[in-house]
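Page 42, continued from yesterday. The earlier attempt failed because a stray header line got pasted into the input along with the sequence. Redoing it now with the clean sequence only.
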Amino acid sequence: MNSFRNINIIPGLVFLTCIGSFQVTAIASVKNQPQMVVKQEVKGKNSQPHPVFKPILSKLKQKTQIKILLPQYIGELDGENPLYAIIETATKNKYEILLGFSPDCSGGTACRLGIITGETITPKMPRLTGKPVLLAQGITGYFVDFRCGANCSDATLTWKYQGVQYTIGLKAGDRNSLIKMAKSVITP
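This time it went through. Structure tokens are written below.
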């Protein structure tokens, strides 16, 4: 008889657990928190850029004085080819990083995936053009689609943040991938 009573308790506990979970979910939905929770889990104070940047990060920090923003997410990766981050330029006011499929890639079309740049804003810089895209923290980026002729160019997304102009580009890149990359460096 005692084991029969214990069996009746189990469905009641499951029911109470489900109700408790439902209330938390309902409260989160009412307060529009699901996105914020996800962002906090993905982007904490100790968040790191994508591992491809680890070999160049200390050298980049030594050479440049501007804030370095590197994405956690890199779009258009197929997972089959290794990816390398190669410093093309690193001065106190500018950095250019080439993303390539070989460690000695010099920007050739066969080995190139894209670029990441940061440069101190000067009055001589041209005005940003392209399709406006709302990024995180109220920042507007400008998307410029790629073009193909003999080869395809990079699709780019450029924005200004704290006195620096940042650009990410992917060869024949997808707009959504670029937005996701940009948000992974801007969102705290």
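Notes: The first strand starts at residue 84 and ends at 91.
Reminder to self: strip header lines before submitting.
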